[in-house]
Input
Amino acid sequence: MEFNPNNTIVRLCLQGIDMEEKGKPEEASALFLQAWDEAVYDFEKFISAYYVARHQKNASDTLQWLETTLQLALTINDDTTKSALPSLYLSIAQCYEDLGDSDKAKKNYALAASRNDTPSDKGPFYHGTKADLRVGDLLAAGGSSHYQPELTMNHIYFTALVNGAGLAAALAGGDRRERVYIVESTGSFENDPNVTNKKFPGNPTRSYRSQAPLKIVGEVTDWVKITPEELQKWREKLANNKGEIIN
Output
């Protein structure tokens, strides 16, 4: 199941996150439990269980929900959930430590450390922009951030979700038409640390970055374009975002 911010369960979790940020933990907890109760697919259960876990009152209950989240991640076993495993094992280890079970704590710390953070995602990958490019062109780091135009980026960013690239194209500067290109990385790449294990567990948006150039290998035109109203909401949200970009 592909990550979709318009999914009912994802929206409930986003509302819960908003309540957390407003200092309303009880309202947040209720929204996360509602998401869990209404979740149908394993991916929806995975996301909602993750949030229910962090609203438990003691280490034992937290551990139970984290173990549920972990088992769902292992069952799904895709690029979205694999990126969450190191963080999940680490949180489980800390619970065991709080419960005085040093052997299980050490085991899970070791599992967290053994997980390779190198993405296994095989794509296809996309990059959204308003630049007019041709097959064979290279996109290199050093451009301005879509989200903080005054910031020169040390990496080039891309995603395996075509609609995510479409959003990036909509947010890009300039008045040319939005373009989504199929790209190949010419070097190694990593999970985008600006989204991985931030609001959601792992890297559900399948967002990556590289210091090596991206090669244009094609273009797609059938992504879902956001409405002007949705775009304005995104611009307002980004304008109010006080977090620093990890560059």
